[in-house]
Amino acid sequence: MNILKEPSQQTVQRILNEANENITKFQKSRFGLPFKKTMEADQINYVIASFTGAAYTGDGRTPKRWTAETVKNVISMYFPQFLVIDTDLLGQIVPLLVNYFTFLEHDQHYIKNSNALIKAAFVANSDLVAACMDPSDWPDGDIDDIVNGDLGEEFLNQTSPEELEQMKQAYTVLLQEQQQGTLASEDEKMLQILDGVLSHEDDRSDRAQTKSKGHPQMKLVKKPRK
User: Fold this and answer.
1) Contact assessment for residue 66 and residue 115, using Cβ atoms and an 8 Å cutoff
2) Tally of structural domains, the chain
3) Domain end: 83, 100, 132, which one?
4) Cβ–Cβ under 8 Å, residues 75 and 48
């Protein structure tokens, strides 16, 4: 991301004021109403305002000049470094922005390239998840949300068949290391997460449900050991 040396504070204030107005309308629209059930109003404002500000201060792009590259830069590079993201918010960021981009084009006629922005958001989400997921630092409560809660289903809903196969392979390797007594302590939580998430897949197979391909956006990535 090319950082601007001296972003205009006047422009920052203007685009954030416009964003606040759009967010208010968005939350009342068909695209924003579903998030009332999954996010607090201040979380919605936090994500969208942060995206808007970072797109300008980081890429020099005001909303009407957002590009696919801008979206990828903000989501994959800025968000992991500067946003406070817990496991609940992590699964909401890209769906929220996807609906917001759609709202800006189809309801507000504010932008004209929502399809390109949406595609870029899905591509960047794997980087965001990989950067934010460090299971060795997670409290047990967050892991339980993934293993037993709705977030485990969310991973499966947004994982491609290829990525699911990679997860199964990673699980097999970690399980073998555990059985051989060579599993590193920092990998224990990753094994627990994979075991729980893949159990959701087993349940689906038992019910003979067909899994849609979806977008390849949510990954469980084993980080390199230090």
Assistant:
1) no
2) 2
3) 132
4) no
The two tokens of residue 158 are 């947004």
Query: How many Å separate Cα 141 from the centre of its chain?
Result: 20
Residue 188 lies in a domain: yes
| Single-letter amino acid code for the residue at 84 | V
Q: Per residue in 153-204, pLDDT tens?
A: 666 665 556 556 766 777 788 888 888 888 877 677 677 777 777 776 666 5
| Residue 210 and residue 201 in contact, taking contact as beta carbons nearer than 8 Å | no
pTM: 0.62
208 sits in the region (left: phi over 0; alpha: psi -120 to 50; else beta) called: left
How many C-beta atoms surround the C-beta of residue 32 within 10 A? 22
Amino acid letter, 105: E
Across the chain, which distance is largest between two alpha carbons, in Å? 61
